[in-house]
Amino acid sequence: MLNRNFLSLFLFLLPFFALAQKAQIRGLVVVDSSKQPIAGATVALLTQNTQAYIRGQQTNEKGEFVFDEVDASTYTLRISYTGLENYLKENLVITAGNNVNLGTLELTEASQTISEVVVEGRMPDMQLDIDKKVFDVSQSLVSVGGTASDVLANVPTIQVDSDGSVSLRGSSNVRILIDGKESAMAGSDINSFLQSMPANSISKVEVITNPSSKYDAEGQSGIINIVLKKDARIGLNGSVTASAATYNNYMAGVNLNYRDNKFNYFGGYNFNRRNNVGSSRNDNVVLIDGQISDDSQRTISNSENTRLNHSHTFRFGADFYATEKTTLSLGSNISIRKNDRLSDIDFDYFNIPEFGSNSSRTSQQYEDDLGYDITFDFKRELKKEGEELTANVTFGSDTEDGTNEFSQTYASTRKDLNRNNTTTENGKNWNLQLDYVLPLGENHKFETGYRSIIRNTEDTQFSLLQDTITGVFNPDYRVSNDFDLKSSVHAVYANYQRQLSDRIGMQIGLRAEQAYLNSIYYSKNPDAAPGTAEIRAEQDYFRIYPTAFLTYRVGEKTDKIQLSYSRRVQRPRGWQVNPFLDLSDETNYRQGNPNLLPEDIHSFELSFAKFYEKWNFISSAYYRKVFDMVQPFQYDIDLIEDIIGTPVGNETYMKWENVGKQDAMGFELISKVNLFKWWDVTANANLFYNNTQPYDQFPTNSAENFSWNGNLSTNIKFTKTTSAQVRGDYRAPQNSLQGKMYAMSGLDIALRQDVLKGKGSIMFNVRDVFNTRMFKFESNLPTRYTISENRWMPRMFTLSFSYRFGIQDLSKNRKENNAMPEDMGGEQF
User: Fold this and answer.
1) Which domains does the chain have, with CATH numbers?
2) pTM of the complete model
3) In a 10 Å sphere around its CB, with 0-12 CB exposed, 13-18 middle and 19+ buried, how is residue 260 labelled?
4) CA-CA 20 to 30 A from 759: which of 297, 577, 672, 720?
């Protein structure tokens, strides 16, 4: 019914979109003395009264810039370039339908030093649009010497847990892209991949909470796009970076660009030794008549963990400018990773005679990963201005080989447990995308396209269990299996933008997706019972995903309100649908579910943006309705008694399920204040409420949760070459369907000193200054109470150095070829 309603609305409104015209601003930027065109100059459009940033771009290789669809108002135009004086054109009056050609604009040579000009000329570190927020993390000091996970943890609205899992607005179901594409070389664990990606390779992070129909519908809370650095100035340009941190953490990298008249070559190498040291504590109690008593069975575990990652990342490619309107690009990324995870756990048992008083467990896991992807891009500007055809073909592969040596020794007469596991995962991804943009006039346009994503994964696990009498290792077929997963999504979309009046704009779109998810589980047990040797699951579904945006500009032309809607989907991931029963921990068993359905999400958002001379903010009220919500659910251990034998009494068993439906709503505020020219403050707060209602087959009550999180960061520039950054964050307690997460907070500080006439920088930072970032979770079930504490990285000190070099020619442009297109949602009306 909902699909039919939106389709009817789409068809009904289409003939009535009459609009008022907008205007265009264009110009040519040259050097005053030589009249030479300047490519790569930063051109910013500001409000006249408040000088608030509206939008910006860089001049092309001919020194030209064009702003399309500019609202009628009065503006200031600011142009800046390294080594030249800033150019200001104030009181630029734009009227509806009247295009403005500013002609030739001349920049004079500056007397300032390089470091002075760079600070004034760079783009804002936070660009706020209603549907998309862009954060320039290249200037973040607290992330220097860290990884992509550290970068994301410092971006407003994003949270990163102790295991590296990423959340957006409190939801971990978020789609993470790299340069606008899914990374195949990350394999099945994007979180581990982000923990190996060096922070210095990232230019900016784009957060899109309600994408348009042009983009995949997957992701409950939206999209996070990580944009990598790329420089295309004429000649040879580059940078080298090195850092060292406590706990033997090291990083080094080099990035190079070389461009001539027809080609732009880019490449880089990064080495990262990431050593995470942590500890955890778990207290698990079996309740008697719903209460903890002296006779309750109880297990307390304390562990020391080390996660050591060595990664080598290579990136290279080339852009070929075949004609002024045609660009061909070929690029590749290679990631070689070695992950070692060591864990020592001590157990204390109470009222469990089978286990005695205590035991100790040692786990040593070694994994070698090799991933790569190859990308081909084509871009052609067609006859009409703004008419464009783009295509992308990407192939990626990831191979992971691992071994796990596991031993547990008991103080009682219980036999010691020794197990060796070997695992192999081979994954391949194909991506095919074709997009076409057709302007239909000065003020509206139509987009359409096609995309196919195909993923194939083959997992193998083989386990050997030591015989307690003979000492011989024999196959344990309970946990030895093959699992093949094949998924594909084929989509077509149409997107239409139009201005209804000088103040009101709209965008509507439809995306049709056909999805397939086929899995086969093969048991290696030659004596497996019928029906258990092979488990097949198939899903085949077609859905329509509508999107709609309505924007109203109030007061000054930069202030705007937007109402948006999108239907989205969250598809089950590989480990969630694998029916393999994990027996590596004999007190905590976990299992996937091949019959999981995708989550069906309806997302609404109302946003307001306000810009002042020294202060701007964007606020959003949002609501999500989620059906068939996917979560791990804890069952009675008796359900798997036929596999594990008679339970002792303190075991837990969790399985992924479509547990129910959820209503989630919240209010988010992001604000930046320029207190002085040398001091600015950025604040973010997110208040949210969710109510999860389980389906009837799950024996638990509804769960309500009201919580909030926030962060505050400040940048202080003491001198032209010395600066500091301080950042603090807080996460309030949160309730879930079967437990509660405790509050957590932390503080980071960093210092930067520019040297070598602005070409070099020395940075020092301290993460988690007060050593307070610890995850604490409580589970309170009718028959069991559990409380867990987990800390993956204590306070860390990092010292870094970077050096930038290169030759610069004003006749060639500096492009941001990897940035995601600007029309992620409805801002380009």
Assistant:
1) 1-120 (2.60.40.10), 235-806 (2.40.170.20)
2) 0.78
3) exposed
4) 672
